What we know:
- It is a single chain.
- 41% of the residues lie in helices and 15% in strands.
- It has helices spanning 2-22, 41-54, 92-106, 118-122, 126-138, 140-155, 187-192, 195-208, 224-227, 253-266, 295-311, 342-351; strands at 25-26, 29-32, 56-62, 69-70, 73-74, 110-114, 157-158, 163-164, 172-176, 215-217, 240-244, 269-275, 316-318, 321-322, 335-336, 356-357.
- Strand 11 (240-244), helix 10 and strand 12 (269-275) form a beta-alpha-beta unit.
- The longest helix is centred in the N-terminal third of the chain and has 21 residues, at 2-22.
Amino acid sequence: KTEMNKAVLFGIVLIGLYFTCASCAKTWAGSNLYYAAGLYPNEQTYLFTNLRRAGVKVLRVWLDGQGSNAKGTNIKAFPALEPHQIGQYDDTVLQLYDDLMVVARSYGIKLLISMHSFNSLQAGDVYKQRFGEQGFYTNSQATSAFDNRLRHILSHVNPKVGKPWSQCNDYIFAFEAENEAMIGLGQGFIQQHQGWQCDRAKTIRAALGNNHGILITTGGESWVDESFQPEFFNCPALDVIACHGYGVGDFNTGKLKTYVQKAVSAGKKLLFEEWGACYFNTPNNNCPSGGVLNSGTRDYNIKTWANQIASAGIPWMYWQILPNKDPHWGEDYEVGIDDVNWQAFVSAAQSASNHDSPFDYSQWLIN
């Protein structure tokens, strides 16, 4: 009887695994364009038309100010949300996204909104001027002021739809408090201040209230292991743990699967929110300049690394897709629409939905 019971139990486990696989969700592809607020209507149309053709589901954007030219894209300049003083808001960037999110939805795409960036802090924004980089994360006055910023964003009413952003489920996929929080302060500092992410997520969750139609995510860190801090998996207010990675080892399917198992056990979702294939023939995670990598090799890299991430069951978002030819300025992972390597991205993005995933995002995406 013991052996029979074991056999029956084994059969039940196999059946359970079969049905789990048969009902698996699928991975999906997204992209980043941090300055998308400034796009003119023609560039918006060109971007979203081609992202839709590629099967892109989500576009990640930032609220930092931007000049009139970024990565070769001609855009309307716009100021930062708090350009001169903490707590004094210039809502221009929010108003620009009021329009953009409506346009994006018409193409079946939602926005992931990063509500601040370490880039802005490091560059000397109003928070650094008053509190310094470390103080921004450790000073209680700083965190209180920043929480007010988060509440201001979430309470902003989009007149196009007559709802505050906290209720714009049809247009907004997720919010994150900050892009790559603390990365310039070192991994040790991040490990010691993991609670900052959860505290900010609690602020966002309180503003969202009972609305679970918009996800709350982290904003990634410098590489995969740094992105997956233990306390993030234990924070009830966080829905998604996002990772960033540019080193080739971070795309390893087996490595990523260990974090997938951890996330499933914790009831969290994962998202590979930033990755890219370097245009130059340098190490992939050191891409400021160099000789031009053979285009066929870069095509291979884009498709191979995207496949490795998706094979782990994790949806991914490329850094970045441009609505113009890539001018190859600075750190160069960008791919321009209809430019070299564009078709490789399209192939990778369209193939993402062929991979099973334990993370079901379907209710937060436009299908």
